[in-house]
Amino acid sequence: MKNLLELMGIEADRIHFSWISSAESTKFVKVVNEITAKVKALGPNQRFVKQAAKVA
Amino acid sequence: MGLAKRKAAYVEYAQAVPLKYAIDADSCIFLQKGKCGACQKICPTGAVDFKQKPSTETLNVGAVILAPGFTPFDPGRFDNYQYANLPNVVTSMEFERLLSASGPTAGHVTRQSKDHGEPKKIAWFQCVGSRDQNKCDNSYCSSVCCMYAIKEAVIAKEHAGDGLECTIFYMDMRTHGKDFERFYNSAKEKGVRFVRSRVHTIDPTPDESLNVRYVGDDGQAITETFDLIVLSVGLQTNPAVVDLAKQLDVDLTASRFCATDTFAPVATSRPGIFVCGAFQGPKDIPQSVVDASAAAEAAGEILTPARNTLTKVPEKVAELNVNGERPRIGVFVCRCGINIAGVVDVPSVAEFAATLPYVEYATDNLYACSQDTQDALAQTIKEKKLNRVVVAACTPKTHEPLFQETLIAAGLNKYLFEMANIRNHDSWVHKNNPELATKKAKDLVHSAVKKVALANPLTEAELNIAQSALVVGGGISGMAAALSLSRQGYPTHIVEQEAQLGGQARNIYQTAKGEAVAEKLQELVRSVEQDGNITVHLKTKLDQVEGFVGSFKSTLAGNKGQTVIEHGVAVLATGGKALTPTEYGYGKDPRIMTSLELDRKFMANDPVLDTAECAVFIQCVGSRQPDRPYCSRVCCTHSVDSALQLKKRRPEMNVYILYRDIRTYGERELLYKKAREAGVIFIRYALDHKPTVSITGSKVTVQVTDHVLGLPVAIDADLLTLATAVLPNRDERLANFFKVPMNEDGFFVERHAKLGPSEFATDGVFLCGLAHYPKPIDESIAQGKAAASRAITLLARKKIFTSGQVASVDPMVCSSCGVCVSVCPYSAPSFIDASARMHAGKAQINAVLCKGCGLCVASCRSGAIHLKGFDNDQIFAQVAAINWD
Amino acid sequence: MSEWEPKIVSFLCNWCSYGAADLAGVSRMEYPPNVRVVRIPCTGRMSPKFALAALREGADAVWVSG
Ligand SMILES: Cc1cc2nc3c(=O)[nH]c(=O)nc-3n(C[C@H](O)[C@H](O)[C@H](O)COP(=O)(O)OP(=O)(O)OC[C@H]3O[C@@H](n4cnc5c(N)ncnc54)[C@H](O)[C@@H]3O)c2cc1C
Ligand code: SF4
Ligand code: SF4
Asked: Which residues of B touch A26 (CB under 8 A)?
């Protein structure tokens, strides 16, 4: 799936996968923080928002 | 535990049920001095009542189950560990709290001295308050502390990183539970150090670290410094429980656990009173859960005639037909007291909701889940003719069923409902950002409204459960399960491949408690044979199984041809067998035998038992080695017991047990002690220095390197017993019939290692006995009863409703590619028969088997599968509703 | 507009991560409010189409967690 998105010109860091069991709240928070930081570094998503995209 | 202070208004612990605050009378200023009372004034629901007094109530019951558990041993009395004086000596219970995310240090392990430094070296001392008659009165083994110490060491290393050194000082490492040996091995790989030595003294250093003196493997005295010491304290019965037992006239063992028989493991000495958990003997969670189900079953047998006499049936409300109606959505935003409203601007969320399309009504509530709000909600649904409902409150995982009940009471289909989680996912986690939290709440509500607008009423498949059971395997666990099922009124079939009932137990001479197995087994077989409700099929195997929970159809193939039986549940009790050894000269000399062959000699009163000069036992034959990395659990106790029997018959016989760790867990430890006192000699060997056996002329000679002396010893044995591994009766076909998994070793895999030990993840299929993991007779019987108990909870419902949130195929779009058939973990999709009149060859999904995971939906390339309740258009609508501002 | 904040749509498995998120709330942990949660029955339900839809609707990133 990540490959597919990259193929379409979306940066790999725009999609994240993780595995967290229902007891791992600490990990959950850690992942939220990490992802938020990564995406912040990446800047806004401009490629694919509705106005710009013709494909559905 | 004194690690941190508790406030006067407290919650017992984060997972407590109910998760409600209570008032600690000892530290509440109002209750102690009559002042304050602030909580009563500010509680918005008026829940605080200072006038509550203890009261005594009398209940009339048919059975009693004792589950009072244990108290951790208090090491304060031990002066050599100086627990009371040294802050950096803690108990394992305290250490659990230090590791816990909800503990006083939020999972960050620190020293308990004033420096609160991060420890670099931690040591665990095993058997504190266990296996010790000198310093305390607990000569039994507490069973669980070896495993929890390893777990604590591994977790501590995970939290603190590899820099942390963890050392466990032990006597015997007892990891006899399912998958525990693997965990032990992996802990060694992760760098946890294991030192076989009992520590004598601890001396504090000036910086409050601890010098530890012990004797190393080579007999040298070693001194090492640790930053923190964890005492692995044992389990014991609380004195108050001892009093309770006296009051109830229930017998205790010498170690003050509840006395039970091997063949009735949850029955106390007093009829009608049952026991489970650590009060029956020190044990871990899975075993306690097995016991609990078994005790419930035993009580259920007495109560069967009274079943359903006290239940109240709620009135049924006819469901309104909302099909074709335009959505009329009601939105209820909960304040949850200040839990939500303290952060999120609840009225503005409700106002916002009112502006959304199809929303007819929006309001906010103080507590949406309280009974009066529920009644009001039902009333509003009727008055405003709402046909869809959104509640923005806490988590659907706990509260969805409650609101759905209210919908049903108001005549709405329960799937016309959606929750927006604005508490757990919002107000609680963004308390310093009320503005953004309110925005988020609006988005979540918007999503939920969009989704519910597209919701359709769903029907739940109703399923009758055939009121009968099939037990595969007629060993003691299978028989125990069958008797339980039958006594609670369910006709039961036992399928046994051999010509007689009894299984492995037929080969065993006596139990650890000294009961003759043959006698008890005969009684058990007789009660099965005489039970009119049980049909025994001997020399029979299963040939085919069709159907699913509630309606299985199994074809039995026996010597009288084939029979088909229908049953609602199945219990797999296919047991195990002893390994046939290929080492230590087995098969080359009649003096070399397995444990079970020695038992046969005992049963036959073989004269060699009275003439042999020397007997040797070799432990762990085929167990705990790379090709079979599990402990067979029964063999240590078995050999120790046999050795004692030999000594009893012929005290002058030399008896040796060659072992790696002696694993006589629980009160079995007393046998080990007795054997040492009787003069049985224990010699330890290491896996890479296995003993060797040579047969020369008239002699069988065993060579072993004594670990203490470091010298090889040669022993001429007249009896050489190999304590062989226990293997499962692996049967792939059977596993496929019931779609249940097996692990690498061939044992069945239960639903949950700790909390679901006697049932499979597959509904309606249960397991017990050796087929689950090696275990002694008492544990096999308890699990047989437990499997029956779990099965009965299903059978007693007579009907079940499956979830409406299942996948379904649109046959017009299906291309018959079969992806769904192959990906579904629950075998729900299948092809419609080629001869069918409609849609032949297309896929169909069995709503009963479908768990609604949606795997097939995502993998169907034709887009032919829809997941009711989570359909594509619903998820797209949800995503589209997220506005961000 | 002050500092730009990323917008993340997350698809959480009902049985795993959704529960972890609930527990994070129970434990009163704090994390940035940049995530919007869509509950799905299982990550098996996840389809690339959902991720694309989220990005198209203006999300800066998608997070799928089982
Ligand atoms: C070497 C050894 C030593 C032991 N020592 C002790 C001890 O000292 N003390 C103690 O308490 N316990 C001991 N045990 C454990 C004790 O034997 C078991 O706890 C108990 O007998 C297990 O009963 P069960 O019903 O689970 O399995 P089993 O007794 O194995 O019964 C399973 C039955 O299922 C039948 N079966 C298997 N597959 C099928 C099939 N597909 N279709 C139909 N029938 C099938 C088998 O023929 C068998 O009759 C020992 C076990 C072994 C192997
Ligand atoms: S040997 Fe027994 S008492 Fe000692 S630590 Fe291990 S499990 Fe506990
Ligand atoms: S002899 Fe059996 S019970 Fe003892 S340690 Fe070895 S495998 Fe485990």
From this structure: 101, 107
What is d(CA B418, CA B186) in angstroms, rounded to the nearest whole number? 45
Distance CA(B382)–CA(B379), nearest Å, equals: 5
- How much distance in Å is there from the Cα of B175 to the middle of ligand 2? 9
What is the reported pLDDT for B48? 75
- What is the domain range of residue A31? 2-42
Domain B578-727, second-level architecture: 3-Layer(bba) Sandwich (3.50)
CATH class of B807-867: alpha beta
Closest residue on chain C to B854 (Cα): C45
Q: Which ligand has the nearest atom to the CA of B781?
A: 1
Task: Give B297's pLDDT tier (boundaries 50, 70, 90).
Answer: very high
Total tally of structural domains belonging to chain A: 1
The shortest CB-CB distance from C9 to any of B398, B440, B879 is to: B879
Please give the class, per CATH, of domain B329-453: alpha beta
B818-to-B547, B807, B832, C15 alpha-carbon distances in Å: 20, 15, 11, 27
Is A51 among the domain residues? no
Tell me: pLDDT of B313 over 70. Answer: yes
* Number of neighbouring beta carbons within 10 Å of residue B530: 8
What residue type is B337 in one-letter code? G
CATH entry 3.50.50.60 includes domain B71-236: yes
Same fold yes or no, B71-236 and B469-576+761-799: yes
| Confidence label for A50 from pLDDT (cuts 50, 70 and 90) | low
Average pLDDT over all residues of chain B: 92
Q: How far apart are the first and last CA of chain A?
A: 17
Q: Which atom of ligand 1 is nearest to the CA of B770?
A: 26
pLDDT band of residue C1 (cuts 50, 70, 90) is very low
Alpha-carbon distance of B418 to B445, in angstroms, equals: 9
Assess whether pLDDT exceeds 60 at residue B15: no
Q: Is residue A54 in a domain?
A: no
Domain assignment present for A52: no
pLDDT of residue B1: 62
Q: Does A9 touch chain C (CB under 8 A)?
A: no
Residue A26 lies in a domain: yes
- Output the CA A28–ligand 3 centroid distance in Å: 40
> pLDDT tens digit string along B568-617?
999 999 999 999 999 999 999 999 999 999 999 999 999 999 999 999 99
| ipTM, 2 dp | 0.94
Pairing mode, strands B807-809 and B865-867: antiparallel
User: Which chain A residues contact residue B107 at CB under 8 A?
Assistant: 26
Q: Across residues B70-99, what is the average pLDDT?
A: 91
User: Using an 8 Å Cβ cutoff, are B303 and B790 in contact?
Assistant: no
Nearest Cα of chain C lies from the Cα of B879 at a distance, in angstroms, of 6
The structure's pTM equals 0.81
